[in-house]
Automatic annotation (TrEMBL), chains A, B:
SMART domains: PYNP_C. Keywords: Glycosyltransferase, Transferase. It catalyses: thymidine + phosphate = 2-deoxy-alpha-D-ribose 1-phosphate + thymine. Its EC number is 2.4.2.4. Residues 433-500 form the Pyrimidine nucleoside phosphorylase C-terminal domain. It is an enzyme of class 2 (transferase). This is Putative thymidine phosphorylase. The keyword Transferase applies. The lineage of its organism: Bacteria, Pseudomonadati, Pseudomonadota, Betaproteobacteria, Burkholderiales. GO terms for molecular function: 1,4-alpha-oligoglucan phosphorylase activity; thymidine phosphorylase activity. Belongs to the thymidine/pyrimidine-nucleoside phosphorylase family. Type 2 subfamily. Pfam families: Glycos_trans_3N, Glycos_transf_3, PYNP_C. GO terms for biological process: pyrimidine nucleobase metabolic process; pyrimidine nucleoside metabolic process. It comes from Ramlibacter cellulosilyticus.
């Protein structure tokens, strides 16, 4: 007579202190009875439940002595997601088959995604059920122009539906968004205080960089906290009229936040995902009137007026389907805006503009006033054609600067942006006129120098298109947080000597 | 006066015993001076050199006490790739920017890959410079029919060029390949001994499963070693005329071996990659005459005669460009071949056929004889139309079985395939005739049960299309190496009751 086997005692949660970036990883001992009885192996996807929360993690199998056979070790990402105390009982099982992956495969094979298919994929993505590989496949399948208008609307709606929403109780709620690709274009940090100083409501949530050296949230974070939750955003806006917060902290579009973490290392753009990413956050943030700034230039994200029109059309149709008023402005995208590229360097430019300093970059001020003017008209604070003058007045009188300080204080306290400990100037190899500046290569250099992860990293431009430079004069200075990164960025800059193109004839 | 800082002592290699499957991972302490000075962070790609070998690994940053600040911990995959003794000095640096990724991005955005672009990508892939995410993006960008004829030829050539090649010194060298999708189709293990028993040369290298429950290499490995290097293959073929080895062990197409490791979890097929994968290995193996078996059926990998013709055409044109004689046979792909699905279960079927056992699956024997007949004619051992009769004779007299045993012994020794410790029969829910069998769902069940990783896992079919079954009679038995996997496969089988479709009217 044989007794039924006794159930094995539950595994105990152990924080191993291993930072795998955002990927939740579970570490189990090769001899762990659960690992063996379930047939888990390295890279298995495992559903783990501890302290009432359930996540799906990728398994690494450990033979070393640092993990016990009755322990379920977790990476920092898994630890943050579970929020359970060390030693908690952990239940493990095979996750249910990921049925929505069939829709991704169908899309890869050229079939169109239906609205329910998109919804199923996005629910699974937001719930963390997709592995990094599966996320990469989905992002790749939707890259370029592979999502049509209906798919884009469905994706936007699905992204809104799986996240939080902010309610503002009626009235116009303004918002703006710049379709990136233009280094240094930190107008938001000027536009919000200008608009709020005119009595309008502008609760701005911004993203961190996806493929660029800095997002607005990255730059803003160097002067004030940006990780605000929904009640904090509501409190800040109630007090000041505006805020500049990180959208990811409020889970306005949690699926988008997950997708961004594979989009960034792949450095891939997708028009449909771009539209869905932007508009899902606007809808979720409770915005009613949205201005979209599309910089156009040969090395900007959008390279021609025609491409900008295609994008504008997709934005407008999608916004309409979701009940948003949307207006698109094409702006000049031929050269970087301001002098700095990188979170702190861009913040320094913004502060100079807000303080009306003589050394402030005039192009950044101009663009910010143009956009603020449009928004003041959209919001009814200025008559048609009168927005820009009002914006200029608010900036010149220092009202915008006072409002910006109020917003920073309300967000948790204003601080000074950091300055990089390692810097090196790249000089002109000949005398001549600056004919062109390659935004993409500049962005690449800033990223190799450590931006946006290292807030102080990036580069500061010293010249503008049309300037005359002498041989040996600095074109730009690379800023880095470590000597290795400085060297890495300078190595690349050395072989890309046409990044700032100086004419042959002095 | 300040002295120059002393160079930091080199980091020391430490094997941590962490199995991350095939991904090389480097573990560094958060306080490690190299990690800090280079600006490495979690998920950075880091080039590491130890004992003369250089690899690119993904960084995980460790805060726990199990790793010292002067140690460079490595995962099992990185440990295997470096082959350096523990304690070796390790040099780390940022890898050069991965320029070939620009070609992958261009492909994702719909531009065609040139031959030099494909070559650059494949060199970097074979050298291990692509991260898992980047591999997933490349595989996705080439999935379905996204590679045209020229791209496919370029991909095949690039895959051959980056790997080893076997030289046979003149004369016909035969080969065959089955374009998968048909569970249990293990004809190779019968065809090779039949052909070799007739005095022809057939050095067969096979792959492990990509998206199926078993590849030929997985099934063969349950009866003999398959990890032979080039000299071993040459020795086995010299002695016996044939071999059935794993292609991955000889690095005939190392780029393909890397791509397969992301194709498998993504469960994605690509026609161009399929053609390149198959033909690059044939060219590298020194084959001159190749027979391709394309099973066609509604639930096979190739679903229609038309799709088979498109594939055959791409195979023929690519083969011609690479100087191979190639012949394609379409076969019946409407039902699984043999009774077993999974490495060991398929090997049991093969052994039964070779031994002329009464219980041997007749369909497997038939297909093997058809293919062997074609090959005997291609190789000049039989007159046109006379191949099949010769093959039948060689099988019936036991000559093929003796040859198979010789091959197994020459490969390192014959062994018995394992039998699964956990089995459960799935019974018919009503009486009736078997109208259809869904290959894809059967394959899914076998994979959920643990195939091909667990060699004994899979399922054994008890019925054929057209059979009459009584309610409660077993349709198939699921085999697993652990109770968890058995339950997982049975859960899926329970909700997919139409996998074996029994008619309504008993």
């Amino acid at each position: 007579m044989s007794a039924a086997p006794l159930p094995a005692p539950p595994l105990r949660l152990r924080r191993l202190g291993i930072d795998t970036y955002q990927e939740p990883v579970l570490y189990m001992h090769l001899e762990c009875p659960v690992c063996r009885s379930e047939g888990f192996e390295a890279q298995s996807r495992v559903e783990m439940t501890a302290g009432g929360r359930t996540i799906v993690a990728t398994l690494n199998v450990v033979q070393g002595g640092f993990l016990g056979v009755a322990e379920a070790g977790v990476s920092e990402a898994a630890w943050r997601m579970l929020q359970a105390p060390e030693g908690s009982a952990v239940a493990l099982r095979h996750p249910p088959p990921l049925e929505s992956l069939g829709h991704v495969r169908a899309k890869i094979h050229g079939r169109k995604l239906t609205a329910p298919a998109v919804r199923a994929v996005i629910e699974d993505v937001a719930a963390g059920r997709y592995s990094e590989l599966q996320l990469a496949a989905f992002v790749t399948a939707c890259a370029g122009d592979r999502l049509d208008q209906e798919e884009t609307i469905a994706l936007t709606r699905a992204m809104v539906d799986v996240g939080e929403r902010i309610a503002w109780g009626g009235g116009r709620v303004l918002d703006k968004h710049c379709v990136g690709g233009l280094p240094g274009n930190r107008t938001t940090m000027i536009v919000v205080p200008v608009v709020a100083a005119c009595g309008l409501r502008m609760p701005k949530t911004s993203s961190r960089a996806i493929t660029s050296p800095a997002g607005t949230a990255d730059a803003m974070e160097t002067v004030a906290p940006v990780e605000l939750d929904v009640p904090a955003i509501q409190r800040v806006v109630e007090r000041t009229g505006g805020c500049i917060a990180w959208g990811g902290a409020v889970r306005l579009s949690p699926a988008d936040d997950v997708l961004i973490r594979v989009e960034r290392p792949l450095d891939l753009d997708s028009q449909g995902q771009l539209v869905a990413s932007v508009l899902s956050k606007k809808v979720a943030a409770g915005s009613t009137h949205v201005l979209i700034d599309v910089p156009v230039g040969p090395t900007a994200k959008v390279r021609s007026a025609q491409a900008a029109q295609v994008l504008a059309r997709q934005l407008e149709v999608t916004a309409q389907a979701l009940g948003l008023h949307l207006s698109v402005v094409q702006t000049d995208g031929t050269a970087p805006v301001g002098y700095g590229i990188g979170p702190a360097l861009e913040a320094h430019d913004v502060l100079a503009v807000l303080r009306n300093e003589a050394a402030a970059p005039p192009d950044l001020a101009d663009r910010a006033l143009l956009l603020a003017g449009h928004l003041l008209e959209l919001g009814g604070a200025a008559p048609a054609g009168g927005g820009r003058a009002l914006a200029h007045q608010v900036l010149a009188t220092g009202a915008a600067w006072r409002k910006f300080q109020d917003i920073c204080e309300a967000q948790g306290g204003m601080r000074q942006p950091p300055v990089a400990p390692f810097r090196h100037a790249v000089a002109a190899q000949r005398s001549g006129s600056v004919l062109a500046i390659d935004n993409r290569r500049l962005a690449r250099i800033a990223k190799l120098a450590g931006a946006p992860r290292a807030a102080c990293a990036g580069l500061a431009l010293h010249v503008r298109i049309g300037d005359f430079v002498e041989r040996g004069e600095p074109l730009f200075t690379v800023h880095a947080d470590s000597p290795g990164e400085l060297a890495y960025a300078l190595d690349y800059a050395a072989v890309q000597s046409g990044t700032v193109h100086v004419s042959e004839d002095a």
